[in-house]
Amino acid sequence: MMTLRWYFDFVSPFAYLHWQQLKALPQFKSIAPVPIALGAVLHHLGNLGPAEIPAKRVFTYRQALWQARSAGVTLRFPPGHPFNPLAALRLCLAAGASHETVEILFNWIWRDGHAGDSAAALALPGAMLDIADVAAAIGAPSVKEELRRNTDAALAAGVFGVPTLAIGSELFWGNDAHPLMQAVLADPGLLEQGEWARIKDLPVAVERSR
């Protein structure tokens, strides 16, 4: 059985949408959800998130809504976006980062359109996860350290965005890449054939200016 890790951040509507597709996979129970801080990943790589680029922001939101509509998935944006997702990520880890935990928090933020940026905003889903003191849970040093470790491990694996499904050492990024993920899950040797294999070592033909 290949190791399957799903790197995500609650700030991403595409992660919420991809979660809906993952649930239909026969391998779903074997997928380990890995909460990471997307902002830290983007900062490390010197990138901006799509919502931080004014000309790209509304297009990105419309694309998310279109993908949701096409898939028949309810998607309602939280009160503000982008928002600071650290509270939701840490609550997820404090509750064990199980499939049930991820489901509850995604539904709270993206299905129902609630804020997920503070202990107060997450009090109700925290209660659903049997965490009475959300502020204490998300402020625990061990939880903060676990999120840092997850994010560092994601960077070490080559993750550059969310959602990303790692099938062994191969990374598949984005909700719209799901059909390719399915193909590789069905045929793990697919990427070692023909043109799939050749492009792995394709040289860069034009040197980037600095």
UniProtKB/TrEMBL annotation:
Upper taxonomic lineage: Bacteria, Pseudomonadati, Pseudomonadota, Gammaproteobacteria, Lysobacterales
One Pfam assignment: DSBA
Classification via InterPro entries: DSBA-like_thioredoxin_dom, GST_Kappa/NadH, HCCAis_GSTk, Thioredoxin-like_sf
Enzyme type, top EC level: isomerase
EC number: 5.99.1.4
Family membership: Belongs to the GST superfamily. NadH family.
Alphabetic keyword roster: Isomerase
Keyword Isomerase attached: yes
Domain of life: Bacteria
Protein name (record): 2-hydroxychromene-2-carboxylate isomerase
Recorded catalytic activity of this chain's protein: 2-hydroxychromene-2-carboxylate = (3E)-4-(2-hydroxyphenyl)-2-oxobut-3-enoate
Boundaries of every DSBA-like thioredoxin domain copy: 4-184
